């Protein structure tokens, strides 16, 4: 199955159904495939199959249309955040050897009707996407994706996450974030609809969710926490909540259960290289610290403390099995626990320390919303432990946290330096900007 196959089937069945909404613009399935076809014809006449295109649109609807047109033309899309600096764009350009940049100034010239135009033959083994992943270094790497590594998961995403053609999905953040893009492609192939948020403000999100009769939401945990701070009433129309990108905390899960009483609440663990690996259904599984059980067709195991996976969803360059360096464990019931990234391990005087174990204790403090723990170079010990704390109140002090650490952490696990912040800056994927936090210490 190709990344656009289901979309064309849906357009034939229900051409007048709205598939995407952004601001005051609504696009039907019939209009979507016409846009794709027109732009495909232009691209085929101008570029060679297999060439790489950077897509940098501010309007997510255009991003989707352009990516699908490129994939139908046999080109490889690399979506980037429209707000990315020229310096970063240049670095990405050097990596991917692009043939062009499709941005808001790019013009698709009409070259007449489709007529007898023969669209290129595309195999599901062809690369259609270069997914940008920053990992833990802050430097972009590109993961090349073929059609089948995404489309083979769509059926199971629908089954596992309780999503169907009847759903209206709400998305926040850039489509350069692979999980957002994947959610978009899945719902369009399923035959549902997407509402792209027009704002970064949670009050606007709430209005959009209510006005558009949203039934499904995908957000990273940080966005759910922001949403819950503003949400005063229960939203009973939503039947599916999905999270990824970072481990969601128990307090946020409990609030989601309260504010979305009829919603299944899920998260999945995966990576740009691996695709879906594990998933958690918080209505059925009480092991909140885990990321759940194996996603359908996935086998995972622990080797030298690292999580390894084998599945049809792994990117071509990493097959048949791969690890992204996450440290983990598996319990007797088959639940997977992610304990941190191997290259984030703190080496304090020869003792290897996982930030996860310290963060877990800190996050149990009633006045701490979220903690981020780092290892910082030390001339004698190798590394020392630093912690950045997002406080729930203005009354929490560093002295309070140190006293709490003395009571709840072994001496060698207690942070040497603690910084309290009012907010945790997010990167373009909606994840906590750990590299930026590190640089601010």
From TrEMBL:
AMP-binding enzyme C-terminal domain sequence ranges: 358-431
Annotated Pfam families: AMP-binding, AMP-binding_C
One MF term in the entry's GO annotations: medium-chain fatty acid-CoA ligase activity
Presence of keyword Ligase: yes
Keyword Kinase: no
InterPro entries per the UniProt record, alphabetical: AMP-bd_C (IPR025110), AMP-bd_C_sf (IPR045851), AMP-dep_synth/lig_dom (IPR000873), ANL_N_sf (IPR042099)
Keywords of this entry: Ligase
Sequence ranges assigned to domain AMP-dependent synthetase/ligase in this UniProt record: 9-102, 133-304
GO biological process: fatty acid metabolic process
PANTHER family per UniProt: ACYL-COA SYNTHETASE (PTHR43201), MEDIUM-CHAIN ACYL-COA LIGASE ACSF2, MITOCHONDRIAL (PTHR43201:SF5)
Family: Belongs to the ATP-dependent AMP-binding enzyme family.
Stated name of the protein: Acyl-CoA synthetase (AMP-forming)/AMP-acid ligase II
């Amino acid at each position: 199955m190709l990344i656009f196959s289901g979309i064309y089937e849906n357009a034939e069945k229900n051409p007048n159904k709205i598939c995407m909404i952004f601001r005051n613009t609504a696009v039907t399935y019939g209009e979507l495939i016409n846009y794709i076809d027109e732009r495909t014809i232009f691209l085929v006449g101008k570029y060679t199959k297999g060439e790489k295109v950077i897509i940098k649109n501010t309007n997510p609807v255009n991003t989707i249309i352009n990516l699908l047109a490129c994939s139908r033309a046999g080109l490889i899309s690399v979506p980037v955040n429209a707000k990315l600096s020229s310096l970063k764009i240049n670095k990405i350009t050097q990596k991917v050897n692009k043939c062009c940049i499709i941005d808001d100034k790019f013009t698709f010239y009409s070259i007449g009707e489709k007529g007898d135009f023969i669209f290129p033959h595309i195999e599901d083994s062809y690369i259609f996407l270069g997914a940008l992943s920053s990992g833990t270094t802050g430097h972009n790497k590109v993961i090349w994706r073929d059609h089948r590594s995404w489309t083979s998961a769509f059926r199971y995403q629908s089954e596992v996450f309780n999503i169907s053609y009847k759903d209206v999905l709400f998305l926040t953040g850039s489509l350069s974030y692979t999980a957002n893009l994947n959610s978009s492609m899945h719902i369009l192939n399923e035959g549902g609809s997407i509402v792209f948020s027009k704002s970064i403000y949670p009050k606007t999100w709430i209005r959009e969710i209510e006005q558009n009769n949203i039934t499904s939401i995908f957000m990273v945990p940080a966005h759910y926490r922001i949403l819950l701070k503003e949400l005063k009433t229960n939203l009973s129309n939503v039947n599916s909540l999905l999270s990824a990108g970072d481990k969601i905390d128990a307090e946020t899960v409990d609030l989601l259960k309260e504010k979305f009483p009829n919603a299944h609440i899920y998260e999945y663990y995966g990576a740009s290289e691996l695709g879906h690996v594990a998933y958690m259904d918080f209505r059925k599984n009480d092991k909140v610290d885990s990321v759940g059980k194996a996603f359908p067709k996935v086998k995972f195991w622990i080797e030298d403390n690292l999580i390894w996976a084998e599945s049809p969803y792994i990117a071509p360059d990493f097959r048949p099995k791969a690890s992204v360096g996450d440290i983990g464990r598996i319990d007797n019931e088959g639940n997977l626990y992610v304990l941190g990234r191997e290259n984030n391990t703190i080496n304090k005087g020869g003792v290897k320390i996982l930030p996860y174990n310290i963060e877990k204790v800190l996050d149990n403090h009633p006045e701490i919303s979220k903690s981020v723990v780092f290892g910082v170079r030390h001339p004698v010990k190798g590394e020392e432990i630093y912690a950045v704390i997002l406080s729930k109140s203005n009354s929490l002090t560093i002295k309070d946290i140190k006293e709490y650490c003395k009571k709840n952490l072994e001496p060698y696990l207690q942070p040497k330096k603690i910084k309290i912040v009012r907010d945790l800056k997010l990167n373009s994927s909606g994840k906590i900007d750990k590299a930026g936090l590190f640089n601010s210490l």
